[in-house]
Specification:
By secondary structure, the protein is α+β, with helices and mostly antiparallel strands. It is about 10% helix and about 25% strand.
Length: about 575
Amino acid sequence: MDGHAGEVDGWRGTRPPRAPKTGRWWRISGVVLLTFVVLLLSAHIASALMGGDGLMWTVWQSAPVKLVVCWENPSAADPLLGEVDRTSGWQRREWVRLALKQSWEREARVVFTGWGACENEANPAQPSFLLGPRRPGTADENIKIQITSTGGGQNPGHGSWGDYMQSGVRLNLHCGSQDCIEYLAIHEFGHVLGLYHGEERSDWPDDIPGCPRQTYPPSDPWWPVPGERLWGAPDRASIMAYCSKGPTMLSPGDVAGIQRAYQRHLPGTLLSLPGSLCLSAHAAAANGEDAFGWECDEALDDQEWRYDVATQALYIRQPADPARRCLDVDTISTTNVQIWDCHQGPNQQWQFQRMVVRGYGGLCLTRPTEGAGALTMQPCTGADSQLWRVTQSVIPGLVRLRSESGALCLTLNGASGSDAVAVPCHAIYLPLTLRSTNRGSALAVPTHNTLSAPAAAPIVVRDFLLGEGGQIGLISFTHGALCLDVEDVLDRAYTLGYGGPVAGQRVQFFECIDTQLNQKWSFSGHVVSGGKCLALDGSATANGAGAVVATCGTEAQQTWDYHW
């Protein structure tokens, strides 16, 4: 589909960021806390699919990229005279909205909101294009969709340069199937986020059959790409590459790229999959006020749920207020979920069960099909070999990652660079010896595969720290701070167009570098209290859906992504 549109060297915004939110580190014993803080504060995130400087929207410390979307001609989605597919226009528009929620919104700090009819289109505000992207709440919508009935999709206003441009996105909602509409939506809104076609990369290979490099004449206002940004190696499976043949989901390379471009969700995000709504509650509310689902706008710290391993509590709190407010199951209704002062009762205890451990590129930590062995990254299917649960350690503040059956546990065998393996949980257990050190953890080597595995050592079951920002780490006297790591290039090479996530990658433990994207993890699965699963009411796709607990099953409403 023709989605090409580029960007002149544009403005990226200079609004000063709001005061940063109060950070919270791990709730563990003092010596563990001190050691890990020293070892992990060693590097800074590099801002670097393919995008262009001047196209990318600004991500503030205090807010995601939140763009107001509207339909210029919403009734044009209704079935046409003689059209075989009689799906309602509302449903077709909803396919677009949900496709974006389950792709770009799920993976990064991006929110597309609004979705009503465009207003004041008889006299729309037209920018000078020197003012750059505005924040929502101004007089006109950011992204305006024109529904068409021919062709595919187009993006005349690429990235932030298309801010409140009339017909800035054109989508054919009569292209023949739900899959077609979803693909068009995700692809064209990739352009909205400032991304180019994969085939437009300067390093696109010339030897991929059916996938020639794309160039445009000098008269094209969008070419060449201004300040080309690369994330990982060329990816023919990308939804932004024509040769991907119309997928309806992001490739692993897309996931890693959009997280580098627009950051991963904030620590504490608990996101419901059907509509990518965040679990929300008002930290300042009275006891008993309901929890609910809302778009992930990060407002007022009301969506940042910390997990206290010792008490198994999920809690939020207001900035500058040390008092915790806990997620609580109403003991009268036995189903409603609410906010309450923390009291460590059983109705405030939550466990992560039947979870896949999602990592680099949205791939899942996977055990051998049968028995113990080394772990790899594979597409997430929810197979038994990918299901884990989090259990408490005998060491305060640490956890153990067990297979859902409880038979196998995550551990390592050796020093930095050694395999991450699953072994029987009854294997010998040795408590960790902790130490404090001033040694930094940033490495000066170009790749993660330059270290040889150490000589064979006794395998012990290990307990781990869930480090803020998504790391799974441990500290030992022998090997220092090590983090669960997908073997790949360092980020400085990744942001120059090398490496990237692919199925089958080896998983190891490596020295902790807190900016490494391939050391970031999240859980996805059931959040359980009293044997019942946290869920959202109804379709779980509309703001305000109530939070409840229900008998655990396979419903999408019971699946949550948790970022710690």
